[in-house]
Design a protein that fits this description.
Elements: H1 27-39, H2 49-80, H3 85-88, E1 95-99, E2 102-103, E3 111-117, E4 121-129, E5 135-144, E6 147-153, E7 168-176, E8 179-181, E9 184-195, E10 204-207, E11 210-212, E12 219-220
Antiparallel strand pairs: 1-9, 1-12, 2-7, 3-6, 3-9, 4-5, 4-7, 7-8, 9-10, 10-11
Amino acid sequence: MSVIDGLNAPNTIAPTSASIGSQALDQRAFLRLLTTQMTTQDPFNPVDNTQMVAQMAQFSSVAGIAEMNQSLKTLISNLTGSGRLSDASNWIGRSMLTKSDVITPLADGAYAGELELPSAADQVSISFVNAEGATVHSMELGAQEAGAAAFMWNGKNEAGQVVADGPLRVVVTARAGTTNLNPTIATWTPIAGLQSPAAGGEARLVTGLGLKKPEDAIRIA
């Protein structure tokens, strides 16, 4: 949300000649007045062309200032709003936890994430699946209480060899008795950079999971 109020508040009633003096004129109102002036002028004493050009030039200057103010509103919103560059730029080189069932390696090659269980589970297991659909690693978390449950894998097999170096899909199986639970999955991903916003847009974080909004971050570490 912008920190600068709108220059012209929306009107619920069309302005009349008695109320225009206390309100800002938009382009439509100016053209209406100009047309009225031309159609009602004295044919024996018409409006001087120089005066008309001066009026139009003055209105163009005011319109230009309004457009510049709108651009400043957008700039200030980007700098101070939820997508502000000043705060998000401090996240570069760190990692963010975001809702996703895709997981990417961190700086040390490890994979980490967090489950949010809707209720207690008797057994929770996690599988990491590559792009070909093969499971490269599985882990058991055992019984878990309702709420957050963290998990991490170093990306290596028992011999210490790296078996995955790219994005993987996280498949979770959680059961309470014979009931299958549907936990929310969030994964940690590194923040490599910041994409400056386009006009009217927001800043985006460049992560292993693609471009993310700053508000997509559950936590930063």
